[in-house]
Prior knowledge:
By secondary structure, the protein is mainly α. 78% of the residues lie in helices and 0% in strands.
Amino acid sequence: MPITDFSTLQTQLGVLTWPLLLCAFLALMICLERSALFLHQTLLSIWPKKQAWVTSLRQSRSTATTENVSALLAQTCAQQDLLARGATLLLKQVHQPKVLREELLSLWLNKQQRDLQAGLKVLQVIGIISPLLGLLGTVLGLIDMFAQLGQSQGPVTPAQLSAGLGLAMNTTAAGLIIAVPAITAAHLFVIWAQGQCLRAGHVLNQLNLWLAGIEDISIDNNQYQAFNQVSNSSTEQKSAFNSHSQIEPQT
């Protein structure tokens, strides 16, 4: 920034020039870094060849064996997206019980969500502080204006009011200009991070069911063997209860 432009900006914002510039710089850096991560993960998730193993998994009608687990692990190890890394983690723990794999998956997804949301708390704090700095500039501008009016012996002129009111309005506008994009970006990135983790968790849960020996994990017909087993056991219990209730006590 040229010296003349910075001098003009400092004249318009007063003593709050550096705090507002610092907030704007931090917000811009966080938004650029999160946007780059967002684009990278989105491109990896929509690339057809990268997600071919997900389609084959959902269309699978066979249980997990050593051969197909090794083939699937070879596909996921070569990829760096969120879903492939989670699948690699599960496939490497194929010999562990299903409950332990679920606990490991839950911890891993929590860590990934924290990593995806890194820096967003700072962005939200900037969105809260910036309007307050603008309000502080408004108060300081009004104080300066009334101080000048108190020292004036003659009638009040527009020139005496313009300096103080200009400082007040400029700092308020600068604070809002920083806060609105910062808060909006923070909420959008949080929604995106949660969506990424939810989608990855859904597919990884399917993978965990497949590793546990579930024969059909297709989501198209919404029929899971584990759910059918639960339904069948519930039906049997209900039938047993009904048959028992129909037996009249003998006197």
